[in-house]
């Protein structure tokens, strides 16, 4: 079970959000742009510190203001796929993927490079550089790099927002397979209801920094 209960003041904007999500499958954070969805998952990732609250993944606290727990991002075992991919331009696809693996001690790795390459259909891209890839190919590589950190939770922040309809259709099937293939919980941020219908088993509606629907099923 994923538990998120956070408060954060960002200038005049206040986030007070709480929800729980299953330990497997895709849970979407849905709402308009500026609702606070990205700030919420940044707090889960450790990129933004809550003013107070509790963040737990399968009983393991990542942040707990009452007990003084605030794990740094590298200790949270959270994979993150950003909207723009953020691949290293000077590295090949293979080296970008290997970077994710190097962040994880060998004894904690449960995701294998060969399996990720096969699942995402990127074997033919391994020796290429990001500048030669399409938008859809870049996002598939970014997903692979995040998976190869062997995370206990995967965060995806509008990973299809910059893609046209054709590229979205290319990437969606790969995202759909991830949760089952790796028995992995995914928090997926989007303001596109069609994406959520295609991907998510559950959804949480966020408006103006608050969760207005704690959990629903698509």
What do you see in this structure?
- The chain has 218 residues and is of the alpha/beta class.
- It has a domain at 2-87 and 153-217: P-loop containing nucleotide triphosphate hydrolases (Rossmann fold), CATH 3.40.50.300.
- 30% of the residues lie in helices and 30% in strands.
- The strands form two sheets. A six-stranded mixed beta sheet has the order 7-8-9-3-10-11, sandwiched between helices.
- A hairpin with a 2-residue loop joins strand 1 (2-10) and strand 2.
Summarize the structure.
It contains six helices and eleven strands. The chain is an alpha/beta fold and 218 residues long.
CATH architecture of the domain at 2-87 and 153-217: 3-Layer(aba) Sandwich
> CATH top level of the domain at 2-87 and 153-217?
Alpha Beta
Any low-confidence stretches, pLDDT <50, length ≥5?
Answer: none
> By CATH's scheme, which homologous superfamily of the domain at 2-87 and 153-217 applies?
P-loop containing nucleotide triphosphate hydrolases
Radius of gyration: 17 Å
Shape annotation: globular
Largest sheet: 6 strands, mixed
Cα-to-Cα separation, first versus last residue: 19 Å
Alpha plus pi helix count: 6
Secondary-structure element order, as H and E? EEEHEEEEHHHEHEHEE
What layout of secondary structure does this protein have?
Blueprint: E1 2-10, E2 13-21, E3 25-30, H1 37-45, E4 52-57, E5 60-64, E6 69-70, E7 78-81, H2 93-102, H3 113-120, H4 135-147, E8 153-157, H5 165-182, E9 185-190, H6 193-199, E10 202-207, E11 210-217
Parallel strand pairs: 3-9, 3-10, 7-8, 8-9
Antiparallel strand pairs: 1-2, 1-4, 4-5, 5-6, 10-11
């Amino acid at each position: 079970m994923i538990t998120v209960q956070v408060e954060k003041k960002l200038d005049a904007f206040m986030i007070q959000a709480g929800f729980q999500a299953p330990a497997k499958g895709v849970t979407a954070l849905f709402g308009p742009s500026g609702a606070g969805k990205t700030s919420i998952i940044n707090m889960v990732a450790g990129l933004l510190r809550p003013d107070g609250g509790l963040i737990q993944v399968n009983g393991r606290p990542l942040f707990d203001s009452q007990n003084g727990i605030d794990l740094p991002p590298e200790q949270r075992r959270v994979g993150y796929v950003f909207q723009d991919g953020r691949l290293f331009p000077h590295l090949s696809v293979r080296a970008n993927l290997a970077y994710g693996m190097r962040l994880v001690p060998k004894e904690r790795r449960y995701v294998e490079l060969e399996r990720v390459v096969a699942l995402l259909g990127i074997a033919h891209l391994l020796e290429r550089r990001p500048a030669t890839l399409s938008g859809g190919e870049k996002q598939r590589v970014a997903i692979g790099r995040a998976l190869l950190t062997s995370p206990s939770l995967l965060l995806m922040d509008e990973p299809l927002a910059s893609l046209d309809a054709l590229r979205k259709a290319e990437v969606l099937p790969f995202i759909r397979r991830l949760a089952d293939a790796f028995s992995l919980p995914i928090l997926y941020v989007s303001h596109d209801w069609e994406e959520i219908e295609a991907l998510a088993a559950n959804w949480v509606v966020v408006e103006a920094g608050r969760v207005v629907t704690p959990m629903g099923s698509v």
